[in-house]
Amino acid sequence: MTEAYSLDAVDHAKAHFGIELDWSERSVEAVEQLLAQMNRMYVGSNPRPSEEEISAVAKAYGSYVGEVYRRHHGAEWGTMTIEGGSFPAVQAKSGAVFWPIGKALKRIKDGPAENIAFYYRGLLPK
User: pTM for this one?
Assistant: First the structure.
């Protein structure tokens, strides 16, 4: 399921921004730049896009970031429970579980403090 969402990000980036996401770890920086643009559009729009619209885009780009991590570091997709809800999450070989979809949503809505490339680098094995 999340692999299909990540393909949506590849298609969206190409169609709306002319950027090709290539599954490299470097491409996470491009995702950060795209989410930064989306944040500026989100903050500057009136009315703002619906929660459903923002969530769909965050699901695509967060899935892409999770899929890049999985492909390069052998992690697995699963689910995590937050406040009684189940969400797609990535479990690293170390056992750490992270939620890139939630991070992408926060990046779009909350801005630069939620930098997804910085988040990604923090997840890398030491």
Answer: 0.94
